[in-house]
Amino acid sequence: MPKTTANKPHPLKHPDQRVGVFIDVQNLYYSAKNLYKKKVNFGAIVKEAVADRKLIRAIAYVVRTESQEEQPFFEALYNLGIETREKDLQIYHSGNKKADWDVGLAVDAIRLAPSLDAVVIVSGDGDYLPLVEYLQKSTGKQVEIVAFGETTSSRLVDEVDDYIDLSADKKKFLIGDKRSK
Fold first, then answer.
1. What's the pTM?
2. Domain 18-180: top CATH class
């Protein structure tokens, strides 16, 4: 499976393709934070994922906390033309916290697939493998992954039609945390 490289058009991507971009925000946020201690440039990622094709929908799956401190981030996504699907952070009696959007992202990708030619999943989570297989085999869609190489499932990379490794161009896809300067 060929990997997309800068300045070289990908043979499976053409201007008339209708594209949907589905962003697992938690996956990217924690990958960037743990690997590089930086934040993610979601605008640059969506632009790269769309690759001069027709963007139909870009949806980011985000988590709300009680403090609402993430609200400016949600507004920034909106200003970039990225819709947000919000879910409250679940806090259990044990103190464990959970906020998982895998099923919601998968349902939206399947629901929107009839109006798309290519589905771009912005996550390296191997849990999306059944979704990738379903979209390719049952609906005939082109499926692409955009994620950081160090945190991307190798099985996922092997299955998709294209893979963009964000780690290959960190300056383009990461932004420093202004508060840490």
1. 0.88
2. alpha beta
